[in-house]
Write a structure and sequence with these properties.
Chain lengths: 454, 182
């Protein structure tokens, strides 16, 4: 790549040099050319979360999603297979299905009436034989499939790059942790209803980093929630635990409530009747993590997750566990559409599931007391990143953001029992530096490297 | 519940229509002026306060399009008290510091029916809302709009919101958070 509308290879190499010093220039948060480059080089080439298998109740179930600007239609076929297509009629490009979800055997385009079954096959052309004759081969005009679709632990991903590495290779050692979060119960996880959707005024890198690698913000952004008792009111919370740097920019924080290493609520407060099942499905290291820690992290570039236990807003009794996955869909340099799914173990008692969901509503999502403040702060970063000083691309100027926390000071825990490079602290920028290193390597179209000490 | 009262529908008089409309306007005024303690006093102790998600379904124009499983609010009186407490007692509720200017435009107040419930008059009331807010020096304002279904109850001579379901018209919310009350 020689030049991409204003951004040259030299620009990117300079950014890479700066990242080695632990700084990220602020201009990359609000630059249109950078955004366009990211859409092609990152969102066009990485595995993107599309749906959870529990969103497809029976054959014929479908949902519509987006990979950045690409509309995607996912269907469950008669045989139970889940397929993904560009949600665009192969005839003249119309958005084929406008619904968010439903159940249909076929999809008819409202423009000229071409009809596709849920295998993506063109099965009907209005007055076809009379106008196209027999020489047109219908098979040439099926829905365009997403080049790569695969799933892991019920999580369905798509990749727009025909030459992409496999999902398994892409997730790498993140799979061990996904097994822990999603595979602890016999029936796996299930979603509660449609995903919540809302738009925040932020660059996708800011929101992605906020979830994956920045527990440090919790102590101040969420100070009010800590003060009213929603989370431990310790200035160092959630700093205790491990930050784990994983392959390809992925990562996870294993958060402890305090410095004892033992959770006051074993197994994240899940009903004790379920503990033997967790012990059966997890290996010893995973079991110990589920028993004594809580998880927040991300699958690079834009899938964040949180498996935490928090109280209901109307009760002092009990903490309820939930798993939240969220896609940060970029829609502009300064706009992200948030897609947020609540998940809980399919095997959990129905009353627990509802309490888990209401706990999630009280704390996360747009109505959640913690996330309300996140969205406000993200938008304040946007408001301050568009000016001449913040946008200064002369990298000799001091227009950098600070990612120096823990750099060269905190060494990995060599005895850590899980995969990845684990640091014995969550207030750390090591994972952020790993994310941004992956970011620049994707922009430079360089081969991914396995996790390394940063 | 007294059966004979439960089955007897109440007549909606012009006085009742006026009282309930004024009650909803007063509620909007308390919210707009950030008198959240005063607002909480208008809510019954057993209030049910919900906001399900709007989705887009395929089908004819009148296809139902609320996903009751997916919600934004599922509140009790106490959880609403907790939300207000965060704003009133801490100095770091950043979403509301300082509070954005907000207006609740309540219209189309329509009393569909009324009945006696456990000795109290209760009216099933529909209204529309348009919520606008502006913060800082922003040149753009956020908005949410939709419909509300309320049960408005007369308790010891005072009107209270006994139940509220908020139906947003946006499938993708147009506000960066839901730090307001609707």
């Amino acid at each position: 790549m020689e030049k991409y509308s204003g951004i040259t290879k030299e620009t990117l190499l300079n950014l890479k040099e700066k990242l080695k010093d632990g700084v990220l220039p602020q201009w990359v948060l609000a630059d249109r050319d950078m955004y366009d480059l990211e859409i092609n080089q990152i969102f066009g080439r990485t595995w993107q979360f599309l749906a959870h298998e529990s969103e497809f109740k029976e054959p014929g179930s479908y949902v519509t999603r987006w990979i950045a600007n690409d509309p995607i239609l996912l269907t469950k076929t008669k045989s139970g297979e889940i397929k993904a297509f560009l949600n665009s009629c192969a005839h003249r490009g119309t958005l084929l299905c406008t619904a968010d979800s439903g159940n249909q055997k076929s999809f008819t385009c409202p423009f000229h009436g071409w009809t596709y079954n849920n295998e993506g096959d063109l099965v009907g052309i209005a007055v076809g034989n009379k106008v196209y004759g027999e020489e047109m081969n219908k098979e040439d005009w099926n829905l365009r499939p997403v080049p790569n679709v695969d799933s892991y632990q019920g999580m369905i991903f798509g990749n727009l790059d025909p030459n992409a590495e496999s999902l398994s290779d892409y997730l790498g050692n993140m799979k061990w942790y996904l097994d822990m979060m999603l595979g602890r119960s016999d029936g796996g996880m299930e979603v509660q209803g449609s995903p919540q959707r809302y738009v925040v005024e932020a660059n996708w890198k800011v929101t992605a980093e906020n979830f994956e690698s920045d527990p440090y913000h919790v102590q101040f952004t969420h100070k009010s929630s800590k003060e009213i008792g929603l989370a431990p009111n310790d200035p160092f919370f959630p700093g205790h635990g491990h930050q784990v740097v994983l392959d390809n920019g992925h990562g996870i924080n294993l958060v402890q409530f305090d410095d004892t290493g033992v959770s006051p609520i074993p197994y994240q407060g899940m009903p004790d009747s379920m503990w033997p099942m967790f012990q059966k499905n997890l290996n010893k290291a995973q079991n110990d993590m589920v028993k004594d820690t809580f998880f927040v992290g991300g699958v690079y570039p834009n899938l964040g997750f949180l498996q935490f236990s928090l109280p209901l807003l109307d009760s002092d009794n009990g903490l309820y566990n939930f798993l939240n996955f969220r896609v940060w869909r970029p829609i502009a340099p300064d706009k992200v559409e948030v897609w947020s799914w609540h998940m809980i173990d399919r095997e959990a008692p129905p009353e627990y599931k509802e309490k888990s969901y209401v706990t999630f509503l009280g704390t996360f999502g747009p109505s959640g007391l913690l996330e309300q403040d996140d969205a406000e702060i993200w938008s304040r970063v946007t408001q301050a990143s568009n000016g001449i000083m913040a946008q200064d691309k002369d990298l000799s100027y001091n227009s950098f953001l600070n990612y120096l926390m823990g750099m060269d000071r905190v060494q990995p825990n060599e005895d850590f029992p899980g995969p990845g490079v684990a640091y014995p602290l969550c207030f750390l920028d090591t994972l952020s530096r790993s994310m941004h290193k992956r970011w620049i390597d994707l922009l430079l179209n360089e081969t991914a490297v396995k996790e390394e000490v940063l | 519940m007294k059966q004979q009262e439960a089955v007897k529908g109440l007549t909606t008089t012009i006085e009742i229509q006026n009282e309930i409309t004024q009650f909803l306007y007063k509620e909007a005024h308390l919210l707009d002026s950030r008198n959240y303690r005063g607002w909480l006093d208008l809510l019954a102790e057993d209030i049910v306060y919900q906001m399900p998600a709007r989705i887009t379904n395929e089908g004819k124009h009148d296809t139902p399009n609320i996903d009751y499983k997916s919600r934004f609010f599922e509140e009790t009186k106490q959880s609403l008290v907790t939300r207000v407490k965060r704003l009133d007692t801490t100095s770091s509720a950043w979403a509301e510091i300082s509070g954005p200017r907000q207006r609740h435009f309540i219209s189309n107040v329509f009393i569909e029916s009324g009945k006696m419930n456990d000795g109290n008059e209760e009216y099933f009331v529909r209204s529309n809302f348009l919520f606008k807010r502006n913060r800082g020096s922003s040149l753009t304002s956020e908005e949410l709009f939709g419909a509300r279904e309320d049960v408005i109850r007369k308790e010891n001579g005072e009107w209270k919101v006994a139940s509220r379901i908020i139906y947003p018209d946006q499938a993708v919310l147009g506000t960066i958070n839901l730090s307001m009350f609707l």
